[in-house]
């Protein structure tokens, strides 16, 4: 089997540590290797960064018995994260964000810019730590875009690794044509997951308000471990999607981690976390 590589950019803060914790749990499940990345903007900072990364890597190896490697680059986080991911042939990037406030490392809007052009799926985490059971409950919003079905394959594979329950949710649409289309999508999702032996629930969001808030509310009620969304920033629909959609989702107040999957035009299918 091919080596499965998980890239974790870190800024040596708590959210970086949380991202590494997520990577450890994922690496254990998929028998993968963690690559911890730090990017500096001045070569004078290289030596110190290498020492810090090496200390972190050794600690993770000893504590969790997983394979860890380090990468230090002089450059720009907006260009070099995806560049390194492609160089090492990463199947997944797990990255911390400091939310909408604060000047450290990557805030929500800047994190979204990095995710947008990536050929590799991202899991975006905040400071809240991952629980021992990993991604036991995964919320998957479905909408009217045909591309959103693409994420179901990735969700199914994660669910198989973690024995997860998947919770599908669609917006409450008053237009009969759109409502029927949404119902077809959720029925497709239920059948897709059932055929793979994955337990799932299906829910229509309550009311016609902000779908992002409804998804986050639902995820909070069921105590979800992960929300999976499709990056459709260029194809906004009825105000539900677009940059604001993704940004609100990845910086959600309950700090639920969010996996962002790019559509097939951007996302390289053979770089799935689950490819052999």
Task: Break the fold down into its secondary structure elements and pairings.
Layout: E1 5-9, H1 14-30, E2 33-40, H2 46-64, E3 67-74, H3 77-88, E4 92-96, H4 108-116, E5 122-125, E6 137-141, H5 151-162, E7 165-170, H6 176-194, E8 200-204, H7 211-221, E9 226-230, H8 243-250, E10 258-261
Parallel strand pairs: 1-2, 1-4, 2-3, 4-5, 6-7, 6-9, 7-8, 9-10
Antiparallel strand pairs: 5-10
Helix pairs in contact: 4-8
Give structural notes.
By secondary structure, the chain is α/β, with parallel strands linked by helices. The protein is built from eight helices and ten strands. A ten-stranded mixed beta sheet has the order 3-2-1-4-5-10-9-6-7-8, with helices on both faces. β4, α4 and β5 form a beta-alpha-beta unit. α4 (108-116) packs across α8. The chain starts with a strand and ends in a 15-residue tail after the last strand. Mean pLDDT is 83; it is low at 100-105, 234-242 and 266-271.
């Amino acid at each position: 089997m091919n080596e499965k590589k998980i890239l974790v950019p870190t800024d040596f803060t708590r959210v970086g540590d949380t991202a590494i914790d997520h990577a450890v749990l994922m690496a254990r499940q998929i028998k993968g290797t963690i690559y911890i990345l730090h990017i500096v903007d001045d070569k004078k900072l290289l030596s110190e960064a290498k020492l810090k990364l090496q200390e972190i890597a050794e600690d993770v190896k000893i504590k969790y018995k997983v394979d860890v490697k380090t990468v230090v680059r002089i450059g720009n986080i907006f260009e070099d994260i995806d560049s390194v991911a492609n160089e090492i042939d990463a199947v997944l990037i797990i990255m911390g964000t400091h939310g909408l406030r604060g000047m450290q490392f990557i805030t929500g809007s800047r994190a979204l810019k990095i995710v947008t052009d990536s050929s590799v799926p991202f899991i975006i985490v905040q400071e809240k730590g991952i629980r021992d059971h990993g991604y036991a409950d995964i919320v998957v919003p479905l909408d009217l875009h045909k591309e959103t079905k693409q994420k179901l394959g990735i969700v199914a594979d994660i669910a198989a690794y973690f024995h997860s329950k998947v919770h599908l949710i669609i917006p409450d649409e008053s237009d009969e044509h759109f409502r029927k289309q949404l119902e077809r999508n959720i029925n497709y999702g239920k059948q897709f997951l059932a055929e793979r032996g994955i337990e799932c629930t299906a829910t229509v969001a309550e009311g016609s308000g902000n779908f992002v808030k409804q998804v986050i509310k639902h995820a909070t009620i069921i105590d979800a471990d992960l929300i999976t969304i499709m990056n459709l920033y260029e194809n906004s629909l009825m105000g539900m999607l677009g940059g604001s959609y993704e940004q609100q989702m990845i910086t959600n107040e309950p700090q639920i981690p969010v996996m962002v999957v790019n559509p097939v035009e951007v996302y390289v299918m053979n770089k799935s976390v689950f490819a052999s």
